[in-house]
Amino acid sequence: MKTKNEIVQNWLPRYTGLPLEAFQPFILLTNFQSYLELFCTITGAEIANPSANMPSASARGITMINFGIGSPNAATIMDLLEAVPVRASLFLGKCGGLHDSFSLGDFILPVAAIRHEGTSDNYFPPEVPALPTFNLQRATAEIVQQHSSDYWAGTVLTTNRRVWEFDEHFKRYLGRVQVVAVDMECATLFTVGAYNQIPIGALLLISDQPMIAEGIKTEESDKRVNRQFAEEHIRIGIETLQELERNEPNIRKLRF
Fold first, then answer.
1. How far is CA 98 from CA 72, 92, 177, in A?
2. Which of 19, 31, 130, 219 is the most buried (most CB within 10 A)?
3. Are 132 and 200 in contact (CB under 8 A)?
4. Of 129, 132, 92, 99, which Cα lies nearest the Cα of 114?
5. Does the pTM exceed 0.70?
6. Is there a contact between 143 and 100 (Cβ–Cβ < 8 Å)?
7. Burial 138-174 (b: 16+ CB within 10 A, else e)
8. For residues 110 and 202, what is the distance between their CA atoms, to the nearest angstrom?
9. Tell me: the pLDDT tens digits for 65-85?
10. pLDDT one-digit tens code per residue, 86-101
């Protein structure tokens, strides 16, 4: 295999357990096996290969992939998706909300992401902003409101640092850069999506409030958030992609 195209066409089925011809044109991305299982419950899909590194399932014109946690995995899946004709992809992730006015279960619609993870530097110079595909975010916002929900919009910071909740210096830095949430994937997904010309958006669920000690995520608090909010999160993702399929605008980014 000498070309990128040859590599990704070989690797995408190996990573996901799904043959290339079975991939649907609309992609839901997640970090969580529980989200993939809920997608199957909602749609009647079956997981193609539960033991795959990035297990996946397809139904209703959508393929959902659990690509794992962190920016290297985010870059990997956005590179591998070059192997199939993706019309739109949407990330359903979780984040730490940083404002006192936020509540667990609130939605964050990122308008941009700060590239604090390092992985995206392999694709574009540091001064290139990490931006989602605008029309994907607009469509997502409309579906959120149709669910009688609302969302916070703002910039998120994507970091490759997993344990920082004790670090007061880092917390002060988060305040200085004026971000509304912290995650580990968005900036990489947006950057590598732009690099590969794959439309990509994101809808994040606030699963913890890491700026205060009692708000740091625990096993029990995460289970509670999943029970209360995960199904709606997934349904919004499905309906957003279905709406794009019915009435697809020009969602691709310009490339110069």
1. 24, 19, 12
2. 130
3. yes
4. 129
5. yes
6. no
7. ebbbebbeeeeeebbebbbbbbeeeeebeeeeeeeeb
8. 7
9. 999 999 999 999 999 999 999
10. 999 999 999 999 998 9
Structure tokens belonging to residue 52: 């795959």
Which H or E run contains 57?
strand 56-59
- 159 in Cβ contact with 120 (< 8 Å): no
CB 28 within 8 A of CB 42: no
Q: Which amino acid belongs to residue 132?
A: P
- Beta-strand relationship, 26-30 and 62-66: parallel
How crowded is the C-beta side of 38, counted as CA atoms within 13 Å?
Answer: 22
State both tokens at 206: 């606030």
How far apart are alpha carbons 172 and 170 in whole angstroms?
Answer: 5
Nearest-5° angle of CA 138, CA 189, CA 200?
A: 30
Residue carrying structure tokens 């992939």 = 65
pLDDT over 60 at 253, yes or no = no
HEC secondary structure over 204-243: EEEEECCCCHHHCCCHHHHHHHHHHHHHHHHHHHHHHHHH
pLDDT tens sequence across 135-163: 899 999 999 999 988 999 999 999 999 89
Is 109:137 a contact under the CB 8 Å cutoff?
yes
